[in-house]
Amino acid sequence: MSDGYYFIGTVTQAGSRTLPDAEPIRIAYNDISPGYFKTLAIPLLSGRDFDRRDDAGSPPVAIVSEKLARHFVGDPVGQRIRLGKSDLREVVGVARDSRYANVKDAPREVVYLPLFQARPDGFWYAPSFEIRYAGSLPEVLRRVRESVERLDPQLVPFRLKTLEAQTQESLVRERLLALLASCFSGFALLLACIGLYGLMACIVARRTSELGLRIALGASPTQIRRTVMRDSARTVTIGALAGLLAAISAARLLASQVHGLDPTDPGVLAGSTATLLLLTSFASYLPARRATRIDPATALRQE
Q1: 124-162 in b/e burial notation, b at 16+ Cβ within 10 A?
Q2: d(Cα 42, Cα 197) in Å, to the nearest integer?
Q3: Phi first, then psi: what are they for 294, rounded to 5°?
Q4: Predicted pLDDT at 229
Q5: Which residues contact 165 (CB under 8 A, 6 or more apart)?
Q6: Could you report the per-residue pLDDT of 258-272, keeping only the tens digit for each?
Q7: 130-159 confidence digits (pLDDT tens)
Q8: What is the three-class DSSP state of 17?
C-alpha cells in the first residue's frame, strides 16, 4: 500500500519442510491490522483473519499468500512457519494472491503479520491507513480530517490519495515510454510513407515512356492506375511481411517487460499491419494518379 517501503525476508521452514540455509523461500511481508483483507476485498481461501486477540501477549501467528501456501504439504492452516532463523509462527489463514508492490509485478510469496503483535514497541516506519468509502471523494477526505482532528488536533493527515490515483502515479514512467514509443512509431510510419511515395514517384518517372505507350494503345486511366498500384502493393506486402516477422522475433525480448499482456497479440499485430498497408496505399495512390495524366505524345518524344 505504501510506495515508500518494500519489506522482504526469508522463510526457512514451511510446515514439515525445513529448508537448507542456502535455499530459503524469499518472501515479502506486511504488518496488517484486523479488517485489512475485507477493506481491500482480498478473499481468505481458508482459515481466519486476524482479530484483536492477536496482540503482543498471544502466540505468534501469520497468514500466508496462496502462492506461498503451495510450499506446504497439505493445507498450511495449523502448520508452523519459520521466518528467518528464529521467528516461529502458526499459520491461521491463506489469502488469495495479490500484487504486493505495484500493478506491474507478478504475485509473489507474501507473509502477513498481525500489526500489534509484530511491532509491540512501536514502528520505525510510517504506517498507512486504508479506508473503504462510498460517496464523493472531497466529502470523504473532509470527514477523515475531522476524525483525525477529534482524536488529536496536533495530528495532520498527509499524502491522502485514492488507490486509483496511486496506481496511475506508479505507471508514469511506463506511460511516458509508451508516449515516446508512439511518437517514434508515428514518425517511422511517416518516413515509410514518404519513402514509398518517393520510390513510386521515381518508378513512375522512369516508366513514363512505357505508360505513355500503354495510354496511346488504348489503356484506360483505371488500368494505368491499377498497374502502378499493383507494383506498389507488391513492395508494401513484402515489407510488411518482413516487418511482421521481425516484430514477432523482437516481442520475445519484450515479454518480460509487459507482464499480463501478450506482446504477440494477433489483434495488435493485425491492426498495426492494416494501418501500415492503408497509409502506404494512400502514399502510392498519388504517383499512380499522376501516371494517368501522362501525355502519350510527350512520353513517346522522350523515348
Answers
A1: eeeeeeeeeeeeeeeeebeeeeeeeeeeeeeeeeeeeee
A2: 56
A3: -70, 135
A4: 80
A5: none
A6: 655 666 778 877 887
A7: 888 888 888 988 998 999 999 999 988 888
A8: strand
